[in-house]
Structures are given as structure tokens and as C-alpha cells.
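Let's see one such:

===
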Amino acid sequence: MSYEVSPKENIDFGATGVDEVLQNVAFILSTPIMSCTLDRDFGWRMGIDDPIQLRKARYTYEVTEAIQKFEPRAIVESIGFEETDELNGKLRPKVRIGIDVESL
């Protein structure tokens, strides 16, 4: 089964199973690298000043690497983007993942 995940701000500290994996991926998507005080490597590089197509390619790589590193139970199937502010080139990743249910 596939799930679509976008950045999220609310955390359910009691999440378990599939909900926990989905929440972890959403948290990774909303965390810029170097912003987590006790784990500076957590998150992904949200580069700026690149042409939009180059940024999409870099975001795809960065998001995939971060999810594989920090939530190995999630299997990245595809990454798309919402252009939330075309004038300023802001992108919001939307990730479709599968979940390795044997590892839950």
C-alpha cells in the first residue's frame, strides 16, 4: 500500500505502526538540516538560489537520502512538488512511500 506524505508540524507522541512511520517521514520533510539542536545531521538540505528545475532534482535526491537514513522502514516510491509560491520559487515536497510492514 502507498501513502502520500507532506511536511507536517503537529506531532502525535503516541503514534505507532504505520502512523508512526508516516509521521516520521512528515517530520523529516519539515526539518531543515542543522536545525535540530542535538542532531545537526537530521533533516535535509533546503537549498536556495537554484533554478527551479535544478532545485527539484536536488530536493529529490536530498529528500530520498534523508528518508532512507532516518526512517528506513519507509520506501520512497516517488517525489513530487507543489509550487506553493511560483513568484518566489517555493516548493513543498509531496512524497509517496511504501512501508516495510515486516519491520514494524
In short: DSSP finds two helices and three strands in the chain.
